[in-house]
Amino acid sequence: MATAAIVAVTIVPSRAFGSDDDLTLDVAGAPIALRRVPKGTFVEGSPASEAGRETDEASRPVAISREFWIGKFPVTRVQFAKFVSDAHYVTEAEKGKSGGYGWDGHGLSQKKEFNWQNPGFPQADDHPVVIVTYADATAFATWVGTKTGRRVRLPTEAEWEYAARGGTTTPWYGGSTADEASRTGWFKNNSIWTTHPVGQKKANPFGLFDMAGNVAEWCRDVYAPYGKGSAADPESTTAPQGEPERHVLRGGSWLKDANRARSAARFRSTAGTRNAEIGFRIIVAPDDAMALMPGALGQGSDFAPAGPATLGSAPVTGGGAPGALTVAGGASARVESGVVADKSGSAAPPAESRSLGMLIGAPLAAAAAVVGWMLLRKKAGASQGGFGISTRPGDDGFWMDAPSLAAGTRVRYECVVSGTTISDVVPLSGPSTFVYTGGRPGAIRILEVIATQQGGYRAGERPSAPFAQPPPARGSRGPSTSSTSSMSSTLINDDQPINVVNVVNMVNASHTSTHETSSTSSADGSGATTSWDDSAPLGDPRAY
User: Are 79 and 34 in contact (CB under 8 A)?
Assistant: First the structure.
């Protein structure tokens, strides 16, 4: 007998969404509009009964534990042009001898003249940029982060689907049929063989446009089958054993049938793929949702001042409780109106009363600085050779040489570019990996090496995430109930973390049976895998 799933979550009525859900980044005179996506839970993938379902869409409960901001539209030509001009960037299609894959009047073919400026059909400034590789998209995100002092990146696959659904459980966020989906996207049947200006079709419940059709969008994940069971903030970082590394693409395109733009539809292609169907959008990471000035020290931010504050001679960094500074080695102090206070809350005495204390404390401070410096080096490693990684700076980035580390291993680094200290986490692509920073980096440090778990998923994927449907659509008065599921859609209270401990019982025998069956059979019962990938022969309509 099936056991009902009982989940301890807080369900709150929808509030009126207003201007605080919009964020605009004015980057080099090309504004980028973003929308806030609340934290919550949803079912990733599709039910076995969904028409057009493919074998890699096995459903699983996923928790998105923190809110984030995502581009309201795909990145446009004018925005990308500002990046190219400001950073003196050359795309991979322009660097190569063969060009990209553009529209030749009959299909996509590779020609030297095809690149983001000439995809083979006319584009205006408000069209989504295309013929951009995964590296091109990541370079744009890094540039925006450098310009704005925010941690900007591509969305994970789970973040993308959660945002695309916007609380819906239908095949498309615009409805249950291809005809209904045409109100929200540009597909093969209505595109007339070209991209279209962003934002012309109906938005989804989160206020996002073009999440179905127009262009397929790069995600940060390396393509792999979903892990079994529920997950929290999952991200795949390594390819299945024996398969080449390919990144996830989502959303379908102007050249594909509407079925390929279902919210659960998954696609994959190598990072160097460059064709006129592929674009991207960016997100501002959740710990940087609050505005920061470029180069400013922000709570929870990966960006810090170029010249770190000091306490004695030990470096001071951000990242503790609000208002706190952390001295290398773990000591902490609090800043109050420019006065350093100790953890007891007592402000430091005036300068004239500190003479004796300084005489006694100077040697202790020096010793503490040495200990802190040693601890910091133990954690971070030197810029050359730390964790078995050496670095080589270039004009617009640096190389990480890590012959002893496996591809897919994630590395957290820090460097200084044009007076701004930036930090990010990047996956190793092989023995040598190039990291684009938008300018010549200095003071490069390797801070952390994050090994991937077996199966290619980050440690953040937790099997005890709560099981629930997506949050209610904006404008509704409370949680909705899907006709295809007994679980209510939920919106988690923004002031509460998602509780992954108080899950009383997640066992639902009927759901488990469906999940296991759906992972091995296709929509037509043949068991064949039909997801597109770039390994298909040239001219194969499945290939991106």
Answer: no
